[in-house]
Structures are given as C-alpha cells and as structure tokens.
Specification:
alpha/beta, 5 helices, single chain, 124 residues
Length: 124
C-alpha cells in the first residue's frame, strides 16, 4: 500500500521535526515547507494527501495559503488541518471560513492530531 503524503508547512523547525518523527513512525511520508510560498509550491508539485498548516508563517501567512489552494479545483477537497498558537473562537471561525477542515491549537495532543489525520484521510 502506498504511504499517504503529508505536507507540514511550519517555520518552527522543532515542531516540523517532531511531527516528522511521529508521523513517519505511523507510516506517513512527510514533506515540509518553512514558509507559505514554499508550501503552495510543494502542495502543487508533490501530490500530497493532506496539509498541516501553521497560520503564522513568513512570507505568505497560513490563511492566504489556504485561500490560494482552495481557489484551485484540484485542491478544493485536499484536507487541511490548521495548527496554530491562536485559539480564540474567532480564529476557529476564520479557519473554517477560509477552508480548513480542522483547527488545532498549539500545543496539540499528538493522539488527537493522529485521529484527525486518519479521519480526514478515511484510514479508520
């Protein structure tokens, strides 16, 4: 069975590394990008199955990355999970409005993140 590809777009190298270690142990292939522009490029060129997206990114913020991907027909249904330090009800609503499938505040529980990933990829 082909491993599902997850694109992690986050400028915090420690978070990216910890996600990479845990998710690869779970059988996923991880691709990473450290800013919004690189994230859009890798989403378009890497054939990813799901995106983990930080809202606060250098260059192009996560909200704009999400909007840009959702404009393109082939990415309308690409699962996107927002990972962010912002955790107000307003931020959650904004995440949904711009097209995120799930919104998880940092620090997040890895088991809960895995449940969300598996659910969105219909692996359960």
């Amino acid at each position: 069975m082909e491993r599902k590809k997850i694109l992690v777009i986050d400028d915090d190298k420690d978070i990216v590394r910890s996600l990479q270690i845990k998710l690869e142990m779970e059988g996923f292939q991880i691709i990473s990008a450290s800013d919004g522009y690189e994230g859009i490029y890798k989403a378009r060129t890497s054939g990813v199955d799901l995106v983990l997206l930080d809202l606060k990114l250098p260059g192009l913020p996560g909200e704009q990355v999400c909007k840009e991907l959702r404009k393109e027909e082939q990415y309308e249904t690409l699962p996107i999970i927002m990972l962010t330090a912002k955790d107000s009800d307003t931020d959650r609503v904004i995440g949904r409005v711009i097209g995120a499938d799930c919104y998880m505040p940092k620090p997040f529980e890895m088991d809960k993140l895995l449940d969300n990933i598996k659910s969105l990829l219909r692996l359960e």
